[in-house]
């Protein structure tokens, strides 16, 4: 008999898990309170940059991110084929820009350990940087280049994931408003507030992002996942003056094929509020003109915000509950949900097939670790 998996949450993680599980022969139902991809997923800049965004050490989180980057070329093709939809996947590489000589030592140290993990990075001086990015600020003295990093257009990717799920036979129930888990220790039963319907299955995958933190009383354990509002803006740049993903200590700028230049991200704690604030966007405007001076005289044409599910220690909750074979967690990916979607989907599917990829330090992501 085919095992029925219910996936709680229709963001990029939930949809990715659903797609991978369906590909492996499971019956899958996605349960979503609102609309698929409506929060952090669709609002993301879509960067696949484990080297640029993990700068301290090759910890388990970095290793998971790197594994996911390596899965992306095949994964994005599978999503496109299954959905019949195209979306941007650009292997532009990235630059982490330096402004001070003191930054050079830190960059050399980072390069040393990251190259042991196949970064193939390159330290650029000022002249070399300007050959790659002619419009960079004159104050920039160099950069660390990562040729293997890439990015996707997040709204298109999430839309394609949802369509891939639907076309392959995943049942998606959205607009459910509130979802109550009424049984989970031996099999799963879930009730939807908007329809009054009850859904039953063998296994539940909890992947509802920032809302997972509200379920501590359901599972009787600490789930320190908190919503962090990330505000982003975009500029119209039809001639696309920026060729790479460009990072600095204040944030990032990345150009998309549709002629928009995305700048992010300004973060604050605002509960589940997703409105855009002038103060949040002003933070972005205060530094992006120092990275690319041409932005100093421009106003964004689009501003938006999404909720990022941050955990207490920065690692996602990923794995089975020890007290129930019926529940797995895949939540709390913070800023890296887009990047981690294929690796997380693979881990969830492997666990349900009773196999785990060798060398993956899953214990570091134990969903019960805050209750031990």
UniProtKB/TrEMBL annotation:
Family annotation (InterPro entries): FAD-dep_OxRdtase, FAD/NAD-bd_sf, Gly_oxidase_ThiO
Superkingdom of source: Bacteria
Catalytic activity annotation: glycine + O2 + H2O = glyoxylate + H2O2 + NH4(+)
Any one GO molecular function term: flavin adenine dinucleotide binding
Keyword Cell membrane: no
GO cellular component, as recorded: cytoplasm
Protein name as catalogued: glycine oxidase
Gene source species: Paenibacillus hemerocallicola
Gene giving rise to this polypeptide: thiO
């Amino acid at each position: 008999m085919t095992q029925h998996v219910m996936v709680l949450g229709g963001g990029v993680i939930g949809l990715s898990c659903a797609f991978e599980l369906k590909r492996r022969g499971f019956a899958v139902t996605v349960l979503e309170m609102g609309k698929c991809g409506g929060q952090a997923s669709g609002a993301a800049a879509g960067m696949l940059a484990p080297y640029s965004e993990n700068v301290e050490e090759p910890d388990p989180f970095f290793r998971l991110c790197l594994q996911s980057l390596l899965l992306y070329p095949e994964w994005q093709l599978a999503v496109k084929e299954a959905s019949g939809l195209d979306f941007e996947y650009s292997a532009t590489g990235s630059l982490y820009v330096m402004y001070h000589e003191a930054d050079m030592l830190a960059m050399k140290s980072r390069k040393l350990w990251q190259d042991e993990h196949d970064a193939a990075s390159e330290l650029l001086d000022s002249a070399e940087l300007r050959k790659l990015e002619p419009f960079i600020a004159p104050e920039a003295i160099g950069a660390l280049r990562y040729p293997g990093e890439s990015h996707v257009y997040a709204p298109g990717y999430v839309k394609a994931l949802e369509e891939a799920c639907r076309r392959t036979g995943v049942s998606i129930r959205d607009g459910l408003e509130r979802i109550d888990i009424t049984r989970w220790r031996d099999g799963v039963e879930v009730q939807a507030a908007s329809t009054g319907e009850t859904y039953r299955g063998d296994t539940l995958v909890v992947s509802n992002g920032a809302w997972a933190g509200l379920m501590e009383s359901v599972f009787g354990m600490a789930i320190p996942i908190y919503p962090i509002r990330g505000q982003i803006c975009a500029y119209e740049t039809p001639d696309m003056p920026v060729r790479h993903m460009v990072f600095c200590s204040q944030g990032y700028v990345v150009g998309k094929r549709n002629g928009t230049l995305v700048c992010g991200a300004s973060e604050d704690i605002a509960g589940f509020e997703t409105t855009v604030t002038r103060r949040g966007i002003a933070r972005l405007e205060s530094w992006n003109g120092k990275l690319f001076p041409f932005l100093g005289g421009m106003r964004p044409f689009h501003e938006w915000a999404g909720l990022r599910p941050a955990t207490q220690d920065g690692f996602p909750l990923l794995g089975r509950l020890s007290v129930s074979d019926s529940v797995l967690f895949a939540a709390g990916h913070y800023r890296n949900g887009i990047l981690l979607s294929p690796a997380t989907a693979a881990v969830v599917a492997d666990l349900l097939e009773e196999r785990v990829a060798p060398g993956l330090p899953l214990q570091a992501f134990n969903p019960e670790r805050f209750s031990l």
